[in-house]
Amino acid sequence: MARQRGGGSDPGVAAALTRVLIAGGFQRGSRREQIEIELDELEELARTLGTTVVERAAIPLREVHPGTYFGSVTVEALGARIDELDGPAALINDQLSPRQQRNLQETWGVPVLDRTDVILAIFGRRARSAEGRVQVEMAQLEHQLPRLVGGWAHLERQRGRVGTGGMRGGMGEKQIEVDRRLINQKLRRLRQRLKEIQRQRTTRRTARTAVPLASCALVGYTNAGKSTLLNRLTNSTVLADDLLFATLDPTSRLLGLASGRRVIVTDTVGFIQSLPHELVEAFGATLEEVREAHLLTIVVDASHPEAEAQLETVLETLDEMGCDQPAILAVNKVDRLDSAEAAEMARRLGEIARLRPVLISAAKGTGLRELRSAIDELVAKVVPDTRANRPIIAAEPFDAAAAELEPEELGAARGL
Predict the structure, then answer these.
(1) 323, 290 in Cβ contact below 8 A?
(2) What is residue 366's DSSP assignment?
(3) In Å, what is the CA distance from 310 to each residue of 41, 90, 189, 236, 349?
(4) What is the reported pTM?
(5) Are 219 and 296 in contact (CB under 8 A)?
(6) Whole-angstrom distance, CA of residue 367 vs CA of residue 342
(7) Is residue 233 exposed (0-12), middle (13-18) or buried (19+ Cβ within 10 Å)?
(8) Are 142 and 186 in contact (CB under 8 A)?
(9) What span, in angstroms and rounded, lies between the C-alpha atoms of 381 and 164?
(10) What SS3 class is residue 336?
(11) What is the pLDDT of residues 303-330, one digit of tens each?
(12) How far apart are CA 34 and CA 305, in angstroms?
């Protein structure tokens, strides 16, 4: 089987990967269980990228080697294993320095990607809106800039310049200098394009706020079930797949509540531990949907073994973003736990978030009546009643209850 060539930070290489080996290091004092959970997440990221994981390795580290991340013995052993497996690419469960990434690629002869490369590649595939595509491309280019040296064979070439009088002068401009200049030029164009898109978004947001509808952002760790919840609440068909970062671009739908109030519910990009700095910066405009929301519904996958750590990651990210809106804690996927386990997990999550938990299963449709009531109650506190957000004829309580029934039960309830 032919080996995959090229630098791991090159989006084209990352998008074409088919087989990968994943590896992560843990230092003395760290729990082995923790690195295994992190490798589980990296394996899910690899699956989302469309690759097959042929092997995974959790490796003890005395210290992080400045040149190769792993020590020389480990580097040699992993290289031999890569040869035995016919040259899969390597995914490393950490953020590598440009030097570490370059040295590992040269030693192993295969693309080496760190967590940032993998997440950027996934975002590149998932972005659908013009804003999302521009943001991803900017993040990819900014990530590539410090990795140009030695990353690809063509960077060692020299480009001669034609001097005055038709004479060639000097050694010419190195290809790396050309690449760096072209990337910076493209980044300037993309930033200008993003400003234009942001102005358009601001105009639309201003138009929305002129009609005083409440807005609720669904936030949470990636794959917590936010898209499934949006679909259940609003009878929508947003992509809801069992993959990390299945949703990238924000999607908004109108939700009618039992009181007659209406609220705009927005599904947003999921958070993840060690979210690359480039993405936090690049997705500032998209995350603005979270900042501008009147209230938040924090969705947590109660069945995940790291549910508490995931919630803490979400809360820390919201704090870094300056989000301090009123919030509801939706403890999701309780159908995967027995009642005692669900209650105990909800109690612990509620203590972490300092919020009263609402137990739900977006997939099964259970607990949604309580969630709608909680949203309704909070909306009443944050947005004043007007003719715009409360129709003349309020929704009948029967409809709100029937919305949680299965299709055949819904017809029977309506006397059909």
Answers:
(1) yes
(2) B
(3) 12, 26, 36, 26, 10
(4) 0.73
(5) yes
(6) 13
(7) buried
(8) no
(9) 74
(10) helix
(11) 998 999 999 999 998 998 889 999 999 9
(12) 10
